[in-house]
Structures are given as structure tokens and as C-alpha cells.
User: Fold this.
Amino acid sequence: MNDAMNEALGAYAAAWNETDAEKREHLLEKGFAPDGTYIDPAGKANGRQELSTMIAGFLDNRPGSTIEIDSEIDEHDGYARFTWVAKDADGNAFLPGMDFATFAPDGRVAQIVGFFGPIPPLGT
Amino acid sequence: MNDAMNEALGAYAAAWNETDAEKREHLLEKGFAPDGTYIDPAGKANGRQELSTMIAGFLDNRPGSTIEIDSEIDEHDGYARFTWVAKDADGNAFLPGMDFATFAPDGRVAQIVGFFGPIPPLGT
Assistant:
């Protein structure tokens, strides 16, 4: 991870916890490419504005919840993986997940593909 | 996972254990897009032929070793993640890993981004 990627990913992650639309969009300007894409099993967003709207929906539905990255960022060749956990307003984890990220040339996040839960063991 | 993706991924994985070049390339024809890409922390391959050559190098360096997928395939929207383990000729695991895969419209693997080991815990 170079510094630009690291800073971008930090701003991107912080945006998921920012209820103020203006502040959230400022974080996404720092961390997420204008035409970046986001997809997880529950939905997708094309571009920074759609992602901001998706985050607003998440935070509106679960007031007080937070999402934090809970692993190191494992990156090579501009591809990164990391885990995160979503917690409710009481701090109880309700969803663990993993993101796969790619980066634009300036270091901002270009694509997030999110997965929910751990990788399922064989036979499940 | 639809059937085409499932079959393609099975043929792709089998190719990693096939020392016979002709058989391996037949497996990659079934499972890997002609212009598919492969990258992991140790190297990269652009296209089916380069991947076959990379696999040959791996199997030449570690005679008798095998690689097998050891999780279910977790897929949504054409994006998949799964874990695998490389074992030596005596069956001892020497490298665990995780692949992130995307698929061509016909179901063949279009891109593999591989990672070695588990996702590193925070603070490591």
C-alpha cells in the first residue's frame, strides 16, 4: 500500500460512518474515484454520488451503527483485501464482511466488491 | 454460481494440478478465457498460454505438489471468492491462499487475483 492508497481507503471507510451528507461527500471526494463502483450482495452503486446515497440509506435504516475495518489491508499490485465489521448502536457486531478493492492511478478507490460473512467452509 | 461458472472454475482449478501440457491447455480452454488474466504476489500471466507456462513452472519447481480449493465458492453478481491450499508431494500444506475471480459472459474465468495466507489481523 502506498500512502495515497492508504489515505484514500481511510477516507472511504470513514464515509460509511458519516451521517452528514456534505461531510460524507467530502470524504468520498478524497477516497473514492468519481466513477468508482461499489457492489455487495445487497446492492450496488455506480459513481460517488450513488455510493453516498447508498450509505445514507444504510445509516438511516440502522441509526447509530458503525462499520470499521478490522484487519490489516493486504495489498499487492494495486489489489487489496480486508475485513470489516458492522456494529449496531450498542456496539454489538451484526455483520462481518470482506472487501476486495482496486485503485485509480491517483490512489483513490476505483472498485469495491464486498462479501458478507466468512468464506463458507466446504460442505456448507 | 451458474453451471457454466462452476464448470469453468473446476477446469481452471484442475489445470493447476495437470503436468501434461496438452491436457493442461485443454483444461484451460474449458475454464479460462483466452485473454484472461492471472496475478498473485509471486507473478502474473496475461492470457491462457502465459498461465499454462506459469503453472508448468510451479509444478516443475515442486514435483508432486497439488493445489485444491478448500472452501465453497462464494459468488454474487459474477464475483467470486474462495480459499485454496497448496500441498507438497507428501500431502503437507505449505501455502494457504485466497482467490478473487471474475467471469467472462460465457462463464469462463476472466480474472484471478490471488492472495497468499490469511488476511492479516490488525496490528500484524
Q: What stands out?
A: Chain A has three helices and seven strands. The interface with chain B takes residues 39-41, 44, 70-72, 74, 76-77, 79, 81-83, 98, 100, 113, 115, 119-124 of chain A (CB under 8 Å). Chain A has a mean pLDDT of 97.
